[in-house]
């Protein structure tokens, strides 16, 4: 979940990191009042969850309160990359001596936060790493043990920063690492972290992403920041299809049948098993298939939940068939998923043998699940078929003429055990 800049600035400020005398507003007249309080040249920034603000005209400079009001009025009506602004942030135009970069990001491979620092700020850190790799310092640290200022000092000093600047930067970077862990963030960066002409250091911009699963733990903070419970805060607004996927997952507490992401393909996916879902999605694409969606199913969902996910995918515009695939699991019952996806087909008036291109979920209660699939003529694969081979089969079967598809063994009047 992404935070707007004005919210990230507030988190930085609460952590004791110096910030400018900024103000946030959704009203152009109030922008004038903030500029009058600042009493000097200002910067008016659009508050959107996307990049490219400067190029799109979402960042403007004003010398007077009247000019600040006019710029705010223009920016509040400006759409940037499909995003309308939440409001505008009014900032003093700073007299900067040097710009630095300080950030912490979650390393999913190491399962640890990694601190990143550079004396070259104000531009993308990726660009600095490519053009001046010696100017980027990195260090992993524990998110369980207390963070040491020595760790911050080491990573800053590795970029060549010494003396008074090093002494002033260490507590700022230390606090950034601490707020990262405290607030369950996956990204916390200050860019630029500015050294002013008077020698002080100030955070001129901040960006933060919070772990979605941490919303419950961070409820008090989010409430204070004004973040609503219904806000997803992703890089783009969730589509109706994706919102419907959240409703399916919320049907009951049993298992997972959600994390739905919409794509433009014609092969619907009901996939799961942790990293297996990502592997299967990539395998379908590598086999020449065009996924209509990404999703996750597992953890022993109810038949109702599995049916709901399958119905959602089957009803997506452009979907021709669905592939139901998982890795070998120990707790998700094969018969439950089989009942769910077959019931979804039947309730929508489809022949399961025609709509399900492949079913590959070996695991618990697989013999019972395979018997149900055989009853409806659904093509399935056991654990002797790899994930990649199952993906190739799904794509291949989708492309075969209708006459070559597996024959139907049962119709709408099948036994009621499927929908229990």
Summarize the structure.
With 420 residues, this protein is of the alpha+beta class.
Describe what you observe in this structure:
This protein has 420 residues and is an alpha+beta fold. The chain is built from 15 helices and 16 strands. It has helices at residues 5-14, 28-38, 53-56, 65-76, 125-131, 149-157, 163-182, 219-225, 240-249, 275-286, 303-314, 334-347, 352-355, 366-375, 387-399, and strands at 2-3, 23-25, 42-46, 59-62, 88-92, 96-107, 112-118, 137-140, 185-196, 201-203, 206-210, 256-262, 267-272, 293-298, 321-326, 356-360. The strands form 4 sheets. Strands 1, 6, 7, 8, 9, 10 and 11 form a 7-stranded antiparallel beta sheet that branches. A 4-stranded antiparallel beta sheet has the order 2-5-3-4. It has a 3-stranded parallel beta sheet with strand order 13-15-16, with helices on both faces. The longest helix has 20 residues, at 163-182. The protein is elongated. The two termini are 37 Å apart. Residues 401-420 have low confidence and may be disordered.
